[in-house]
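Box 3.1 A note on notation
Throughout this textbook, protein chains are presented in two layers. The first layer is the amino acid sequence; the second is a token string describing backbone geometry. Keep the layers aligned when reading.
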Amino acid sequence: MQTKKWDPVQGLKYIILAFATFVVLFPPYIIFINAFKSANEGANPFALPESFLNIDNFVNVFVRANILQAFSNTAIIVIVSLIGNIVLGTMVAYVLGRIDFRGKSIVIGAFLFAMIIPAITTQVVVFSLIQSLGLYNSLAAPILLFIGADVIQIYIYLQFIRNIPYELDESGMMDGASLFRIYRSIIFPLLGPATATLIILKTINMYNELYIPFLYMPRQDLVVVSTSIMRFAGNNQAQWGNISAAILLIMIPTTVLYLFLQKYIFSGVMNGAVKG
């Protein structure tokens, strides 16, 4: 039986893959083991905890960080914002991708220009606008910002719409369907992979966002998952056991979401990258 010769190039690929896997999995491993440590075990973050049955840190997260309220507020913000992004994104992309009108290239260029402007440069104006609308210290402030301040969903949907054959629109027109009926019955259902891609990207972005909730919702009862961790961090000391437990709990929803949507995400990326 002939033995397979060692291929240095193939071996290097496996080494790089193993190293990349280690880099990705090592931080969650550190968070996991530190979530079960007591305050007296924090000297060495790489050491295993004395007992994996110690759930004091998780109890503290539920009691002091009000994690259930944080999950509730975050869910409201994410769900409402996603609905707004999906509805507005698909409608705008449908108009830009299917309807020719004067100034269309200017509109597309304006959206592109808005994406490259650093967000920090507009914060004074945005903050004043939110205050003038009476939305400061309310869940409506981040929802409005998440829907209106990011136009990435338009370009995601626009790429997919350009790959949908125009003959489908013409078939609908021949049957007497209006533009809205074509959008609702033909275009929107075909944007499923793009919607799945948008959901995971926007959810992770909004879920991890700290600056907007911290600035626009300083009220204690308006805590979200990102700001709840700050309950265990002070100017001079951080309670790493509690922080690790909070991070571990916060990671669960996004991990589950990714596991359920990963096949749609990969399909969406491939379909968006290939021209029809």
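Residues 272-276 have pLDDT under 50 and may be disordered. Residues 75-234+253-273 form a domain with the MetI-like fold fold (CATH 1.10.3720.10).
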